[in-house]
């Protein structure tokens, strides 16, 4: 069964509060999403593999550690996932970025895939799939289906706000994919929005609607 991590770091929780606030405008919303993505990534990378190297300081030779060079791929679900990419690349500038375009049909709430572009060496990479919202779970489940179909084996999913329904759908469909969340909310409403959530993440990021 996939593990679910809810980040309770005070800085993350503080920023999530302002992200939720309906009075937070587009510019500030975008900046906060970027900052939370960086902070979450810092936590998620805690188990990255290291290797020992020798380095010469101005004083002496030292044994020290560097990342062992496992290839990473960041995959935002379009549109809203794009808002998390730069924050992640601040920490991991060498990661490659793929894109999966999905939108939720407003009537059926079913995901519709319209674009996929991934790094060519999919099978060799560890992937972090990102989207601010995990609501019914349909989009994340479909994006992971799409990644696995193309050869991805090791995938983590990172989102800002999740509904219990989405977490359950993910655990049923992809028990091998761990989920990293900043806020686990109460429920979905009749339109499939997370309650209390933050509204429509794409619209708030890009100033549409
Ligand atoms: C939002 C969000 C997720 C999806 C979550 O995208 O960014 O991708 O809904 O809902 P689900 O868990 O029920 O599938 P949306 O479909 O609004 O597209 P957009 O990012 O292009 O606005
Ligand atoms: N997508 C959003 O952007 N917000 C929600 O609450 C649910 C799905």
Automatic annotation (TrEMBL):
Residue sites binding 5-phospho-alpha-D-ribose 1-diphosphate per the record? 79, 104, 131-139, 200
Q: Which InterPro entries match?
A: PRTase-like, PRTase_dom, Upp_B, UPRT, UPRTase/APRTase
Supply one GO molecular-function term: magnesium ion binding
Stored SUPFAM superfamilies = PRTase-like
Q: What is its EC number?
A: 2.4.2.9
Q: Give the matching CDD domains.
A: PRTases_typeI
Q: How is its activity regulated?
A: Allosterically activated by GTP.
Indicate the enzyme's highest-level EC class: transferase
Residue stretches making up the Phosphoribosyltransferase domain: 6-208
Question: Which BP terms does GO give this entry?
Answer: UMP salvage; uracil salvage
The protein's annotated pathway: Pyrimidine metabolism; UMP biosynthesis via salvage pathway; UMP from uracil: step 1/1
Residue sites binding uracil per the record: 194, 199-201
Record note on cofactor = Binds 1 Mg(2+) ion per subunit. The magnesium is bound as Mg-PRPP.
Cofactor annotation: Mg(2+)
Per UniProt, the keywords (alphabetical) are:
Allosteric enzyme, Glycosyltransferase, GTP-binding, Magnesium, Nucleotide-binding, Transferase
Q: Which reaction does it catalyse?
A: UMP + diphosphate = 5-phospho-alpha-D-ribose 1-diphosphate + uracil
- What is one GO cellular-component annotation here? cytoplasm
Function per UniProt: Catalyzes the conversion of uracil and 5-phospho-alpha-D-ribose 1-diphosphate (PRPP) to UMP and diphosphate.
What is stated as this protein's family in its record? Belongs to the UPRTase family.
What PANTHER family is this protein classified in?
ADENINE PHOSPHORIBOSYLTRANSFERASE, URACIL PHOSPHORIBOSYLTRANSFERASE, CHLOROPLASTIC
Q: What is this protein called?
A: Uracil phosphoribosyltransferase
Q: Which organism is it from?
A: Lederbergia citri
